[in-house]
Amino acid sequence: MKEFRSAKKRIEVSVGESVRILRELQELSQSQLSELTGIPQATISAIENGRVNLGVERAKILARALKCHPAVLVFPGWDALESAA
Hints:
This protein has 85 residues and is mainly alpha-helical. It has helices spanning 15-25, 30-37, 41-48, 56-66, 70-74. The longest helix is centred in the N-terminal third of the chain and has 11 residues, at 15-25. The N and C termini lie close together (11 Å). The model is unreliable at 81-85 (pLDDT under 50).
């Protein structure tokens, strides 16, 4: 599989920080993101502050609202592959 390059860590960003960064880049408040996703604002705050794990299902819901791939939230700071199979 020489056509793929290995993923490598580029920067240190936590899962919660990735959620907050994407939310803020889209100029959404936690309350607005809560309305878009149905996830309580307190839970979004807890995710962003590392008190609650994101989890796969929440990652999918948040990714849809934040218009990104769930992997961007689950694996922040990793290089993306140039092409996928």
